[in-house]
Structure formats: C-alpha cells, structure tokens
Amino acid sequence: MTDDMIQPRALRPVQFAARCAMATLLLAGAAWLVRAVWEIRLAMAGEPASGPLDQGDGVHRLPTSLEDSYHVVTNANGAAVLLCALAFIVWLDRVRDNALALSGQPAKYLGIWVWLSWIMPVVNLWFPRGLVADVHRRSAPDRRLPAVVNVWWALWLIGLLSSVGLLAEKSTDEMIELAYTNIWQLMVADAAMVGAAVAAVFMVRAVTTDGAAATGGAAATGGM
Q1: Which of 30, 133, 173, 190 has the greatest number of CB atoms lying within 10 Å of its CB?
Q2: Beta-ladder partners of 54
Q3: How far apart are CA 94 and CA 135, in angstroms?
Q4: Which of 162, 190, 164 is nearest to 175 (CA)?
Q5: Overall domain count for the chain
C-alpha cells in the first residue's frame, strides 16, 4: 500500500502556498517579458559589423554592452523560472493531498509524478495537466474543469516545444544571434510563456477556490 492510499488524511492549508505560486508566476511572466524587451533591443540595434559572437573555429569576439546585459537578463529569467517551479509544485502537492483526502480513493498519478512529470521526456507533454485536472475532479466533482487549465497548458506546450522554447538546446549566444536574424521565433516563445504564466495565475486561483468551497474553506487557511 502506498502513501497515496493511506486514509484518513488531514486537510492541509493551501492559501499561502497558492499566493506564493501566483506571486512567483507573475514574477516569471515579468522575467519573460523583460527578456523579450531585451531581444527587441538587440534586433533594433542590429548585429555589430564585426559579425556574430561565435566567429567559428573556436574564436569569439568581445560582446557589446547590450549583449552582456542580455546574459544577465537570461540568468535572472532562469532564476525566476526555477523559483516559480518550486512554488508551483509545492502548491500542487498540497492541493493534491487535499483532493485525495476528499475523494477517499487512490490517486490517478503517484506522488512522485508531481515532481518528475515536468522533466521526464514525453511524459511532460500531458502528465502535469493531468495532475491538475485530477486534483480538480476529486476536490470539486460537481464543477467543470476551468477552461483556463486548457489555456494554460496550450500556451505552456507552445513555449515548451517551440524552436527556442524550454526544451531547445540553445546557448545564450545563439539566442542573441536569433534576435539579430529571426526574432519572430523568440517572440513566439516569449509570448507563449508570458501568456502561460498569466493563465496559470488564474488557474491556481480557480483550483484553490473550488477546493476550498468543497471543504467549506477548511483547507484554504493557514500557512506553510
């Protein structure tokens, strides 16, 4: 018997976790927006006359101040995304536990997938959405799945699978070169990630609110 089948379960406070998740989602969305602004600045400045950063044969020219600052922006973006991911997973873990307590049935997905589903190839194309949908179905079976869940997941997949998305193995220097030559690819990925972050804020709020309504608000109060 796994821990997912142990009954009864005490309801866990989720309101603070939800607020942290929403705040870090907005932070991540803002970080993607800033990144897009820097890419537009690079495109408007144009590639220096000395050519691309990678000159070939292992030779690299010195970056401009704008290119240097883009490295800082992308590093900050990565940190914001990591912080957001941790806060979101903590929230998902808590609302999942409460959904199991309410349904009294084994989970559709083992608890380990709350963490691994985001990084496992192929699995990460549908398990995360499935986890959220399963939480909502168990905690609020009389309510329809909020449409924002599908909006969030569609935008996330666009950002994930685009040629310069989270799965793309491109260096920051390669991103800079794209800003000079094919900025539209960067804009598609950036817009999708900003949209996904905003949609996720509404999704977290909807799932948390529906779960709280099912428990009479008992799981919506308290801290971490």
Answers
A1: 190
A2: 60
A3: 10
A4: 164
A5: 1
C-alpha to C-alpha distance for 13 and 211, rounded to whole angstroms: 11
Query: Dihedral angle at the C-alpha atoms of 213, 87, 115, 124, nearest 10 degrees?
Result: 90
Let me know if residue 37 belongs to a domain: yes
**Cα–Cα nearest to 92, from 203, 216, 194, 218:** 203
Cα separation, 203 vs 4, whole angstroms:
24
User: How do the pLDDT tens digits run along the chain, 224 residues long?
Assistant: 444 444 445 677 899 999 999 999 999 999 999 999 999 999 999 999 888 887 777 777 888 999 999 999 999 999 999 999 999 999 999 999 999 888 787 778 888 999 999 988 889 899 999 999 999 999 888 889 999 999 999 999 998 888 666 656 678 888 999 999 999 989 999 999 999 999 999 999 999 998 777 666 555 544 43
Name the residue range of residue 169's domain. Answer: 12-47+64-214
